[in-house]
Design goal:
Number of helices: 3
Shape: elongated
Largest sheet: 10 strands, mixed
Radius of gyration: 22 Å
Helix content: under 10%
Strand content: 25-35%
Distance between the termini: 38 Å
């Protein structure tokens, strides 16, 4: 189970969460919950076709149960380079990282898109040191089920997870556990322009947060509206982007990342985006802040106290949490940050709503950079 709280631009997508929902329009104070269920088994269904139901407490407001579906194929999470209209890559990608008034010497790292072969990703662009863990998948399970399904059900802003849960399937033993941790509180962030040209990010401390990571994507349009420079920035003290950082990390994983300053400590509530980032991306900037959260872990039978005793494990269950918020700045206007940006230009004309043309970062940027958008 993965339980998330989404605020800012990302909450505009209703049940469909993620980066692609950031441009969905609406106010910046919306809050949404996301819940992802995945069940994998080494057994085949008995009898007939795969069938699985997750029974939740009434406070979840999802009815008696939700039915998990068994897809025949599934695409896992991927990191993509932007290519808005599937054209031959143009422009450059400028990569910054670290909190501070100015970017350290040696930044940005510059990638020339024109030198890339079609579909080729520069080595070392995405993080490989943090293991991507999506739990049960079609590839590692004989029988696999997931929810949300195409049943029209989604968790609501006032849904709760606390209480007894039961999973009944014809391809796995019955699983029962009681949750004591609920959805995390929403993040609220403000971004304040500083006299130097840097941007101060300020957010509320979220209970149970194990660490924070801020990321920003931005851009500069070319002279005829085509894609020019694309900018990436991360609050990590080292060059770390995507990969496992985009997943639902365990508290133990985050503790190690806090020690090596990849993730900001749970007591941190501010970070300064360097001057050079805004200078490199004057036309638009889209940011995301993630608060990694707790995990509850269950197994049956429990692990024997004596390590010499054989452990005939029948099932395990784990529930991970996170809270994230997102915002967008375009021509002096901030949307979805849950707060006002100081130093804005109040007389700027209203910008039309832009929606991505396809999935992933490339589609998101394509919607923004498309001429006439």
């Amino acid at each position: 189970m993965r339980a998330g709280t989404v605020s800012g631009m990302g909450a505009m997508g209703g049940g469909g969460m993620g980066m692609a929902a950031m441009l969905g329009g609406g106010g910046g104070n919306s809050i949404q919950h996301e819940l992802l269920l995945r069940l994998g088994s080494a057994n085949g269904p008995n009898p007939g076709s795969p069938k699985a139901d997750h029974f939740m407490p009434p406070v979840a407001k999802l009815g008696k149960s939700v039915a998990l579906v068994s897809p025949t194929q599934e695409r896992g999470p991927t990191d993509e380079l932007p290519n808005p209209r599937n054209e031959k890559p143009k422009g450059r990608m400028l990569i910054f990282w670290g909190c501070g008034e100015h970017a350290p010497r040696g930044q940005p790292v510059i990638i020339d898109f024109s030198k890339l072969a079609s579909g080729q990703v520069p080595p070392g662009l995405w993080t490989s040191t943090i293991i991507r863990d999506w739990g049960p998948t079609i590839g590692n399970s004989k029988t696999f089920g997931r929810w949300p399904a195409e049943d029209g059900k989604f968790v609501k802003p006032d849904s709760s997870l606390i209480g007894a849960h039961r999973v009944a399937a014809n391809y796995a033993p019955e699983i029962s556990f009681t949750l004591t941790k609920d959805f995390m509180a929403p993040l609220r962030i403000t971004n304040t322009a500083q006299a130097s040209g840097s941007t101060l990010l300020n957010w509320n401390a979220v209970q149970y947060a194990t660490g924070y990571l801020a990321t920003l994507f931005g851009g500069k349009m070319g002279p005829r509206g085509e894609m020019g420079d694309v900018v990436m920035w991360s609050s990590s003290a080292s060059r770390q982007f995507g990969g496992g950082l985009s997943d639902w990390l365990t508290p133990d994983q985050v503790a190690g990342l806090v020690r090596d300053r990849t993730v900001l400590a749970p007591a941190t509530t501010t970070c300064t985006v360097p001057v050079e980032v805004k200078q490199a991306a004057p036309d638009f900037r889209m940011g995301m802040l993630t608060a990694y959260g707790p995990m509850e872990d269950f197994s049956y039978p429990p692990r024997p106290a004596d390590v010499r005793t054989p452990w005939h494990l029948q099932w395990t269950a784990r529930i991970r949490h996170r809270s994230l918020t997102s915002w967008m700045e375009m021509q002096g206007m901030t949307m979805g940050a849950g707060g006002q940006q100081t130093g804005q230009q109040p007389d700027q004309p209203h910008q039309p709503e832009c929606r991505p043309r396809r999935g992933g970062l490339g589609g998101l940027l394509g919607g923004v950079l498309a001429p006439g958008c």
